[in-house]
Design a protein that fits this description.
Layout lengths: L12 H16 L12 E6 L5 H12 L3 E6 L11 H11 L2 E5 L3 H9 L5 E3 L7 H15 L6 E5 L4 H13 L2 E5 L8 H7 L3 E3 L3 H5 L4 E4 L11 H7 L7 H6 L5 E4 L11 H4 L6 H20 L4
Parallel strand pairs: 1-2, 1-3, 3-4, 5-6, 5-8, 6-7, 8-9
Helix pairs in contact: 1-5, 1-12, 2-12, 3-4, 5-6, 5-12, 6-7
Bound molecules: phosphoric acid mono(formamide)ester and norvaline.
């Protein structure tokens, strides 16, 4: 059975840590000419837009000697309702791994159950594990081991938040979550994290003394019709300079992007000195290549 990454908790703590540290090593030796993926093809199925996920996988595969296939679902037979199990069987006889971005964790699980090759979640309704590998890489690179530290999630308890919750368990930090009623994270994901993830009463309560502040868009892909309602629900949840002041003086700011300045984050924060958003985006490439090495069983 191949290993998959459908959610971050598919990895053991030591595996997640190894991938993140390996990502930094790959980055340090960027010009080494290392080509572990010669002859390998990554199929990438997208039913939603993407800049970072597509480009990081595609550029990474090219850099490391492999090939990536961009498959817009609507341009394939998936878009004409070919059963996922058939697509999984067929792609996994031709490709070395499959990445999927869609709005159904359940469909990704079904696909993986019928795949002979690793399947990677490139964002679903419930999780965004690749984002968290890059986020943890960024945290390690700028502030060292996050074990015992505190992160504050401000905003929507969404897919990225769920992966952040799982990261707290895997990497041994505490995640305080400030999310308005009706937008709090999935109870099962929270429950599995135990004390590692805690609901805070307010953005200020979450941010006070934190080592890292993170947020995401208030209106995720597919929720555009709810935008006005969401703007009202999230009033008071913007990460602004006053909120950052409550965190530790050397706290860092992360955002998976795309961002909406003036909504979930003030321009002075996301464009300010504590923001690491472009390192974080770049690290998608290194973290995912380290992940592929791991899933292919290539010894580092
Ligand atoms: N953060 C992230 O996944 O970005 P894209 O939607 O551009 O892939
Ligand atoms: N929560 C966002 C993340 C985008 C990378 C979305 O689902 O659209």
């Amino acid at each position: 059975m191949p290993r998959h990454l459908l959610k971050l908790s598919d990895l053991a703590p030591a595996e997640a840590r190894q991938i993140v540290l390996r990502a930094s090593a790959l980055k340090r030796q960027a010009d080494s000419g290392y080509r572990p993926f010669v002859g390998k093809t990554l199929a990438m199925i997208f039913t939603k837009n993407s800049t970072r996920t597509r480009v990081s996988f595609e550029a990474g595969m090219a850099r490391f000697g492999g090939h990536a296939l961009f498959l817009a679902a609507g341009a394939t037979q998936i878009g004409r309702d070919e059963p996922l199990r058939d697509t999984a069987q067929v792609l996994s006889r031709m490709c070395s791994a499959v990445m999927i971005r869609n709005d159904s964790q359940r469909d990704q699980e079904e696909f993986a159950a019928h795949s002979r090759v690793p399947v990677i979640n490139g964002l679903s309704d419930l999780h965004h594990p690749c984002q968290l590998l890059a986020d943890l890489q960024t945290w390690f690179e700028h502030r060292g081991d996050p074990r015992g530290k505190v992160a504050a999630w401000i905003g929507d308890g969404n897919n990225v938040c769920h992966s952040f919750i799982e990261a707290a368990t895997l990497f041994g930090f505490t995640l305080r979550i400030a999310a308005p009623a009706g937008y709090q994270p999935d109870a099962a994901v929270m429950g599995a994290a135990g004390d590692a993830a805690q609901l805070a009463d307010s953005p200020a309560a979450a941010a006070r003394g934190a080592d890292l502040i993170v947020t995401d868009t208030w209106t995720s892909m597919g929720q555009e019709a709810e935008q006005q309602k969401r703007l009202q629900a999230f009033a008071g949840y913007q990460v602004d300079a006053a909120l950052m002041q409550l965190a530790k003086p050397d706290a860092i700011f992360l955002h998976c992007l795309p961002a909406h300045r003036g909504e979930e984050v003030a321009a002075e924060v996301i464009d300010g000195p504590q923001s690491l958003i472009y390192d974080e985006a770049e690290n998608r490439l290194w973290a995912q290549m380290a992940l592929l090495e791991f899933l292919f069983g290539i010894a580092a």
